[in-house]
Amino acid sequence: MNDRTLKRWLIASLVFNLFLAACIAGGAWRWWTAQQAAAATQSRGLRFAAEELSAEQRRAFLLGLRSAREGSAALVQSARDSRQEVFRLLKAPQFDSAAVTRALANTRDIDAALRARVETSVIDFAATLSLDDRQKLANGLAQRSTLSPPYTKSAKP
């Protein structure tokens, strides 16, 4: 092998190794960001609010949520249908503001009924807990911001 051929092989090897290192780093970065996103979304749900409670209490909490959800299947479908009606009205060639307003009001009413069922389930469960366990549940709810509106601003000095 002459020097020129050796140089070409070294350059090709360097380029290949850089490409390989970039692929590994990119794959690791994608995996890490996906894990972070999954962890952030997984622990924010209402079902995670009872993490601090005993296994039996968590099970009872989850059963209460499941019962509220199963009893609300018709309301959930009505909410979906109502949202579809809003979208249909917004896409219509002739915009009818009053009809859109009525459809949005209907959607809000259904959403409020759904939320009331879930909140009633949480309150019914909380009524069975001791003060210490209610405080744990309240902390879990506060950490997940499930009962506070998303537009709440923190007070700044």
Quick synopsis:
The chain is an all-alpha fold and 157 residues long.
User: What best-fitting shape do the alpha-carbon axes yield?
Assistant: flat
- SS summary, helix count: 5
Overall pLDDT score: 85
CATH architecture of the largest domain: Up-down Bundle
Uncertain segments: 146-157
What share of residues is helical? over 70%
H and E order: HHHHH
Describe the structure.
This protein is mainly alpha-helical. The protein folds into two domains: about 1-40; about 45-140, Up-down Bundle (Four Helix Bundle (Hemerythrin (Met), subunit A)). It has five helices and no strands. The protein has helices at about 5-40, 55-70, 75-90, 95-125, 130-145. Helix 2 (about 55-70) runs antiparallel to helix 4 (about 95-125) and helix 3 (about 75-90) packs antiparallel against helix 4 (about 95-125). The chain is flat, with a radius of gyration of 27 Å. The model is unreliable at about 145-155 (pLDDT under 50).
Please describe the topology of this protein.
Blueprint: H1 3-42, H2 55-70, H3 73-91, H4 97-126, H5 131-144
Helix pairs in contact: 2-4, 3-4
Key structural traits:
single chain, flat, 157 residues, Four Helix Bundle (Hemerythrin (Met), subunit A), mainly alpha, disordered C terminus
